[in-house]
Amino acid sequence: MRVIAGLCRGKKLKSPPGMTTRPTADRVKESLFNIISNQINFDGCIVLDICAGTGSLGIESLSRGASSCTFIEKDITVSQILKTNLICCKLDQKSKIMTMESQTALKLLSKQGQHFDLVFFDPPYESGLYEHIAGLLDQLGLLTEHSLFIAECSSQNVLPSAFGQLVKTDRRVYGDTALEFFTLEAV
């Protein structure tokens, strides 16, 4: 697993042994960032990486010019690897790691008045968290009218067309992996 583009291009990222995490494959990540680049400008972008694992998606965003990224990862061992990856890429000053459950972290971020331009959500595929987390992002006001929410899921699991005001705009399938794109419905 490596950083594909930007300041940290080619940097290898560490990951825990075994099946603790399921990092996004490089070819899927490359396709994902090609799609995102056509929709948003990374310069100054504020990113949230939920169920961050090794931080691959958030780190890629920072490497491409995002101003900051908040990483949420509940597993303390994986969180330490994420921290190591950020330091190795010299991106730790632009990052915040929240080692806790996603729901708790989102509520804290909302209380702090945070808003995010780009949100990645890559939980364990069978976690059942998709609807709950997407609903919280909508309810807690963590997104703006220009935000992009991207959920990575199993290609066998088609997510609903909407979660509250979050409306699906695209779905791409890469083997076992699907990427689903959501934006806030225009009011």
Mean pLDDT: 92
- What is the architecture at the second tier of CATH? 3-Layer(aba) Sandwich
Give helix and strand order, one letter per element, not per position. Answer: HEHEHEHEHEEEE
Tally of separate domains: 1
- Tell how many strands the DSSP assignment holds: 8
Distance between the termini: 40 Å
Uncertain residue ranges: none
Which strand order does the major sheet show? 3-2-1-4-5-8-7-6
State the CATH topology: Rossmann fold
The largest sheet, given as strand count, sense and whether it forms a barrel, is: 8 strands, mixed
| Class from secondary-structure proportions | alpha/beta
From the alpha carbons, calculate the radius of gyration and give it in angstroms. 15 Å
What is the top-level CATH class?
Answer: Alpha Beta
Number of helices: 5
Q: What fraction, in percent, of the residue positions are helical? A: 25-40%
Write the CATH homologous superfamily: Vaccinia Virus protein VP39
Share of residues in strands: 25-35%
User: In one word, what is the shape?
Assistant: globular
Concise structural overview:
This protein is an alpha/beta fold and 187 residues long.
Which terms summarize this structure?
187 residues; alpha/beta; Rossmann fold; eight-stranded mixed beta sheet
Structure description:
The chain has 187 residues and is an alpha/beta fold. The chain has one domain: Vaccinia Virus protein VP39 (Rossmann fold). Helices cover 28% and strands 27% of the residues. It is built from five helices and eight strands. It has an eight-stranded mixed β-sheet. Strand 1, helix 2 and strand 2 form a beta-alpha-beta unit. The protein is globular, with a radius of gyration of 15 Å. The mean pLDDT is 92.
